[in-house]
Write a structure and sequence with these properties.
The protein is an alpha/beta fold and 350 residues long. The protein contains eight helices and 17 strands. The two termini are 71 Å apart.
Length: 350
């Protein structure tokens, strides 16, 4: 059974087409530019990482770590003719061939590298059977031409070439001056944060989404229409948030009091809640105080009537007809006074 599973997994892997990625050719130099050569080599290694790891739609072609310049010389392909390049790919045993160039340039006053990659479906290597597929051209700033940033460019380029996407990216930019933090909601679910006015949500499956932004001191922002996300692309939304409304208590000077007002957002106002709690507490406390006053008076009357002992005539002058009535009244209102005290305490805490 285990052998069958392993065999099936091997067959599933074998179904992937093989891809070869030739080392990038450095252009624009009459002498060897060591830094451009280093960038070309690092970018080539990074491009090969995904297929070598068995990730994506293609598998790596073993033994295909060749340089474009060398292969063009050995196969007499100076102009990179499609059929000639297909012959190189077929000789390597690849179904698809990636090759391209790198050139140091200035773009908009910024130094960097112009990258141009091509993808060729090799076919059987015979003339007329190769097929050129969409390539990838990008400008990589000098500051991003090494380390993890260069690897990220390679990952982006390989995915673009091979149509191997994990979805698209949503980028949010808040125009409000000095805006710091906020939260990005996608269909009502928290999916990302905004810091220093910018934030993004990566790997969103292709589709249309309702986007919202929430931030302290601002009204909630909702997209008027659903925003379209496409595979391998970054969709940028620039927004301006509206400051939350402020309520100022009449007759209160904000310069001398911190309790002169608050902001009202779509979630509601906390001040209204606590104002209501204060009113309820005042009512409860007033009721408890009145009850305590009445009960206390009745207890005092019962204690004063104790001097009459069992003299009915004396008890009547105190408002009681019998000794039992006096005793019951004292106990009842003494208990009630405890209850009234509790009600007063609860009202004082609200």
């Amino acid at each position: 059974m285990l052998f069958a599973v392993i065999l099936a997994a091997g067959r599933a892997e074998a179904k992937k087409d093989k891809i070869a990625i030739l080392g990038l050719e450095v252009l624009g130099t009459t002498t060897v530019d060591s830094e451009s050569t280093r960038v070309a080599q690092d970018l080539t290694v990074a491009l090969r990482t995904r297929p070598k790891a068995g990730q994506g739609p293609y598998q790596w072609t073993p033994g295909s770590e060749k340089e474009l310049v060398d292969e063009k010389i050995m196969n007499n392909c100076p102009n990179e003719d499609k059929d000639c390049m297909a012959k190189i790919g077929a000789a390597l045993g690849a179904d698809f061939l990636v090759y391209g160039k790198i050139e140091r340039k200035q773009l908009g006053g910024q130094a960097g590298y112009q990258i141009s990659l091509k993808l060729l479906k090799v076919g059987d290597g015979k003339p007329g059977n190769a097929q050129s597929l969409p390539g990838w051209t990008e400008f990589i700033p000098l500051a991003e031409s090494s380390g993890t940033k260069l690897q990220e460019w390679a990952r982006k380029g390989y995915k673009k070439l091979t149509n191997d996407f994990d979805g698209g990216t949503l980028k949010i930019r808040v125009r409000n001056e000095g805006f710091d933090r906020g939260t990005i909601l996608v269909e009502g679910e928290e999916r990302g944060n905004i810091t220093a006015g910018s934030g993004e949500v990566p790997s969103l499956p292709e589709g249309r989404y309702k986007i919202s932004i929430v931030a302290g001191g601002f009204e909630r922002w909702d997209s008027t229409e659903k925003i379209t996300i496409r595979n391998g692309e970054t969709t940028t939304e620039e927004i301006t948030l509206t400051a939350a409304k402020t309520i100022v208590t009449p007759g209160c000077d904000p310069a001398v009091s911190n309790d002169c007002g608050g902001t009202v957002s779509q979630a509601g106002s906390g001040r209204g809640f606590w104002r209501g709690m204060f009113v309820v507490g005042a009512v409860v406390a007033a009721g408890g105080g009145g009850l305590l006053f009445v009960a206390g008076g009745k207890v005092s009357d019962a204690k004063d009537a104790n001097s009459c002992e069992d003299d009915v005539a004396c008890l009547k002058t105190k408002g009681f007809d019998t000794p039992d009535e006096r005793n019951d009244s004292g106990k009842k209102f003494e208990t009630l006074s405890y209850v009234a005290g509790g009600v007063l305490a609860v009202g004082g805490t609200l």
